[in-house]
Specification:
The structure is a single chain. With about 230 residues, this protein is α+β, with helices and mostly antiparallel strands. The chain has 8 helices and 4 strands. The chain has a 4-stranded mixed β-sheet, sandwiched between helices. Helix 5 links the parallel strand 3 and strand 4. The radius of gyration is 24 Å and the shape is elongated. The termini are far apart. It comes from Streptomyces bangladeshensis. Keywords: Membrane, Transmembrane, Transmembrane helix. It holds the Pfam family DUF4191. This is DUF4191 domain-containing protein.
Length: about 230
């Protein structure tokens, strides 16, 4: 029994330490995080207390309001911490793939389905909104990558809507921290079985890494990529 309590205490201490570390990292990018969390917690609790006094049950509503306030604060903290983390990743290669991996249930993501010699890259996500191609890199260069990927997919999934997004801070682009929200706002037009069927079809295309004929063993020194860069079949 004592061992179980010790393990539980250690786990709780670890969680608290992790929360504190996350808060410190978030505060570096989001200076107002403390004020925002305090406002959410106090505001939520205040609303429930006010309702409690109006209906004559301040204690019950106060306890319930405290629980809701803690939940609301945790949700807001999680979202702002996520945005801060994505903000720090802005401009780094592969950052969009990290966001797609954490987009949530119902989405299947395949990183690096297309790439060029300049390391501009296109990732693919499939969900009830259809197919979403997410490009990272120079806006002018990735447009040709997106067009080529759409043409390739059109042969087998012509009946599925395709959306394309370019990650960046310029006009017509989507900021990394807003990528997940933008994708979740897309209209849902496919059913679950249709999503599964689409994934099965696209699996035949594979991704860039699985389609590249890489030799076994260590890469020879001085080896260069062929002109035109690696391409999917």
């Amino acid at each position: 029994m004592a061992r179980k309590e010790t393990a539980a205490d250690a786990a709780n201490a670890g969680r608290l330490k992790q929360i504190a570390l996350t808060y410190k990292m978030t505060r570096k990018a989001d200076k107002k995080i403390g004020l925002v969390l305090a406002a959410v917690g106090i505001g939520t609790l205040g609303v429930f207390l006010a309702i409690g006094f109006l209906i004559g049950h301040p204690i019950y509503l106060g306890i319930f309001g405290l629980l809701i306030a803690l939940l609301a604060t945790a949700i807001v903290f999680g979202r702002r911490a996520e945005r801060a983390a994505f903000g720090q990743m802005e401009g780094q290669p592969g950052a969009a793939a990290a966001v797609l991996d954490n987009i949530g249930r119902g989405w299947t993501t395949t990183p690096a389905v297309a790439m060029n010699r300049s390391q501009d890259v296109v990732h693919r996500a499939v969900g009830k909104a259809g197919i979403v191609l997410v490009a990272e890199g120079n806006p002018n260069r990735v447009k040709s990558l997106l067009a080529a990927e759409k043409k390739k997919m059109n042969r087998i999934v012509a009946d599925v809507p395709v959306h394309d997004l370019i990650v960046g801070t310029g006009e017509g682009q989507v900021e990394l921290k807003k990528l997940r929200t933008t994708m979740l706002k897309l209209p849902r037009v496919l059913t679950g079985p249709q999503v599964t069927t689409t994934n099965d079809r696209l699996r035949a295309l594979g991704d860039l890494m699985s389609n590249m004929p890489l030799p076994k063993g260590p890469m020879p020194k001085g080896m260069k990529l062929p002109k035109g860069g690696p391409r999917g079949r």
